[in-house]
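Below is how a single chain appears once it has passed through the pipeline. First comes the sequence as given, then the structure the pipeline wrote out for it. We keep one example in the README because the format questions we get most often are answered faster by looking than by reading.
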Amino acid sequence: MEQVVECLIAGGPQHGLVRRQLWDPQYPAPPVMASGDGEVCITAACRHAGSESNRFLLLHPRATGAQILAMLHMLGAQLASPTFRLVMEGAPIAECFLD
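Resulting structure:
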């Protein structure tokens, strides 16, 4: 069953944008999107926000380290417990906690 997820974008023309889109959690790949300049933004982290909600951090290919860290803090600050999963090619690689 599809759910509405929030995607925070780091880097590129939509840096800082929070985009809501439909995503099927049964689908094996995390969400991606094309940015305004035609580059593909891929998922770098996922924050579970309840049984029917997820938040994803999408990275533009030219996102800077400062932009990525700012969006990671925004991803963690939205909830009481700022723990999230880092992903690589759709598979979780680590759990992180921002303090």
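The radius of gyration is 12 Å.

See the next section for the split statistics.
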